[in-house]
Amino acid sequence: MASLSWRQFRAMLKKDIVMELRTKEMLMSMGLYSLLTMVVYFVALSQAGSAFDPRDIAAGLLWLAFIFTSMLGLNRSLVHEKDQGCLEALLLSPVDRPVIFFGKVTGNLIFLLAVEALTIPVFAFLFLQGETVEVSSLAFVPLVLLAGSIGIAGVGTLLATMSVNTSGKDFILAVLFIPLAYPLLLGTVTATGAAIVGGPDAMHAFWAGMAWVLGYDVIMLLASYGLYEFIVGA
């Protein structure tokens, strides 16, 4: 049974990745949206004056961009499944609902991490160029990105599945997702900001933020896992 579920999971994940590599529609739209958001932030803050320290708000700007970009990708991933009849076919096939959930979560996580890898260099060039940062502490930023992205993908996949059958998909997903993502956003911004600033005191804040993020991931993933079967069966 375990080997069958693993094969089903790999087949679902391969299908999502191959489909995206053929069209590149979701990655292109998410990547362009994220990069344009960085440029808009930079232009809006360019007149703040020399006394303004970009490090004070850089983490918040980065994660706001990721949150809004993720909603775009989550909606598109489920809309494609719905429009092409793939979601109904999956539900009619002898595939366990948790396998469907973790397959979609893993696919969304991979795409989100790919967009983040594209965005981070642009973000560093626009907001951290010429600023004094500790390279050793910046090495912890990928850890925050991975932990935060897991939470976004897990909760976002559940909510996108709920909203895909509604008439206002984008609006419904935003209304549900942003309040639920607030605790995650609080932890990721705290940890990322501490990693950018660096120093012993900042690292205490980093691990406090990471504890918040990891706790959120565990609780919300378990809740999403438990609720997914009822959501897709509704």
- Helix % is over 70%
Largest sheet: none
For this entry, what is the oligomeric state of its chains? single chain
**Order of H and E elements:** HHHHHHHHH
Q: How many whole angstroms does the radius of gyration measure?
A: 19 Å
How much of the sequence lies in strands comes to under 5%
Query: What class would the helix/strand composition place it in?
Result: mainly alpha
State the separation between the terminal residues, measured CA to CA: 26 Å
What is the residue-averaged pLDDT?
Answer: 83
Sum up the overall morphology in one term: globular
Low-confidence runs of at least 5 consecutive residues: none
The total count of helices amounts to: 9
Show the helix and strand layout.
Layout: H1 2-23, H2 25-45, H3 55-83, H4 86-92, H5 97-127, H6 135-138, H7 141-163, H8 169-197, H9 200-233
Helix pairs in contact: 1-5, 2-3, 2-5, 3-5, 3-7, 3-8, 5-7, 5-9, 7-8, 7-9, 8-9
Folded structure, characterized:
There is one protein chain. The longest helix has about 35 residues, at about 200-234. This protein is mostly helical. Helix 3 (about 55-85) packs antiparallel against helix 5, helix 3 (about 55-85) packs antiparallel against helix 8 (about 170-195) and helix 7 packs antiparallel against helix 8 (about 170-195). The two termini are about 25 Å apart. It is built from nine helices and no strands. The chain has one domain (about 1-40, about 55-234). It has helices at about 1-25, 25-45, 55-85, 85-90, 95-125, 135-140, 140-165, 170-195, 200-234. The chain is globular and about 60 Å long.
